[in-house]
């Protein structure tokens, strides 16, 4: 797929959690990308300021392209956080192969924190297109306040009966259905009963990806070729 570079204006900025924001960029034509891919975002500052960030919108969502970023103390985050609707930035897209495949009918997603962004794109695409794909997401966060796209996934589960979301929290909230602790082999067995039959997509911080790969291959004895990863670069 050929990459394209465009100067786009910020259409809307959406707070997702206390320190995570989505940036929707105005676009007036259909753009060619696959759910799960990422883009390069360059900001207009005195020095070079760019990052590679997952696209959190789905190709089914028209009129904008969206990326979602955890706001930290970095120069890039600071500049990004200062953007307002109408401001311009440069994007180069699409990139990456962390995408849905037609021959994968049973998928398991393992994600943590802001690593959920490409998974949101894929799940939204599957729900909107009513794809015949059975998907289970096991999503780890510190607390319920840190769950990015919680409402989106709640809606998608109602729209797409073949999507199940299991939350794993270090700090459980009263009345909220979740697993307490971290994602481990037993959690995967409990939440994904047919795990040997599934392709696994893992997205999150590099250390999490390494830990999940080790669990899947060394504890659950799954083949490496059944594991698709994307080291998330949006921190």
Structure in words:
The model has no long low-confidence stretch (mean pLDDT 94). This protein has two domains: 4-95, Beta Barrel (Elongation Factor Tu (Ef-tu), domain 3), CATH 2.40.30; 106-231, Nucleotide-binding domain of ferredoxin-NADP reductase (FNR) module (Rossmann fold), CATH 3.40.50.80. It starts with a strand and ends with a strand. With 235 residues, it is of the alpha/beta class. It has five helices and twelve strands.
Concise account of the structure shown:
With 235 residues, the chain is an alpha/beta fold. It folds into two domains: 92 residues, Beta Barrel (Elongation Factor Tu (Ef-tu), domain 3); 126 residues, 3-Layer(aba) Sandwich (Rossmann fold).
Topology at a glance:
Elements: E1 4-17, E2 20-26, E3 38-42, E4 50-54, E5 64-70, H1 75-81, E6 88-95, E7 106-112, H2 117-129, E8 134-143, H3 150-159, E9 163-171, E10 179-180, H4 185-191, E11 199-204, H5 206-219, E12 227-231
Parallel strand pairs: 7-8, 7-11, 8-9, 9-10, 11-12
Antiparallel strand pairs: 1-2, 1-6, 2-5, 3-4, 3-6
Please give the domain count.
2
Q: Considering DSSP H and I runs of 4 or more, what fraction of the residues is helical?
A: 10-25%
Instruction: Give the mean pLDDT.
Output: 94
What's the count of strands? 12
Query: Given the C-alpha coordinates, what overall shape results?
Result: globular
Q: What's the architecture of the largest domain, going by CATH? A: 3-Layer(aba) Sandwich
* Series of secondary-structure elements, N-terminal to C-terminal: EEEEEHEEHEHEEHEHE
What topology, given as strand order, has the largest sheet? 4-3-6-1-2-5
Number of helices: 5
């Amino acid at each position: 797929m050929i990459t394209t570079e465009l100067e786009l204006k910020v259409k809307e900025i959406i707070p997702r959690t206390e320190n995570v924001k989505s940036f929707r960029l105005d676009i007036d034509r259909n753009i060619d990308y696959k759910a799960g891919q990422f883009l390069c975002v360059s900001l207009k500052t005195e020095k070079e300021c760019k990052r590679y960030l997952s696209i959190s919108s789905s190709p089914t969502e028209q009129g904008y392209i969206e990326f979602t970023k955890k706001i930290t103390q970095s120069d890039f985050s600071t500049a990004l956080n200062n953007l307002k609707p109408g401001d311009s930035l440069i994007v180069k897209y699409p990139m990456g192969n962390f995408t849905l495949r037609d021959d994968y009918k049973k998928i398991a997603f393992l994600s943590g924190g802001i690593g959920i962004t490409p998974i949101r794109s894929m799940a939204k695409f599957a729900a909107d297109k009513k794809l015949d794909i059975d998907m289970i997401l096991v999503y780890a966060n510190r607390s319920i306040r840190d769950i990015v796209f919680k409402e989106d996934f709640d809606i998608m589960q109602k729209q797409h009966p073949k999507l199940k979301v299991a939350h794993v929290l270090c700090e459980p909230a009263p009345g909220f259905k979740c697993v307490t602790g971290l994602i481990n082999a037993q959690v995967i067995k409990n939440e994904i009963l047919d795990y040997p039959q599934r392709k696994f997509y893992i997205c999150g911080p590099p250390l999490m990806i390494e830990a999940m790969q080790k669990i899947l291959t060394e504890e659950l004895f799954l083949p490496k070729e059944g594991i698709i990863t994307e080291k998330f670069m949006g921190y």
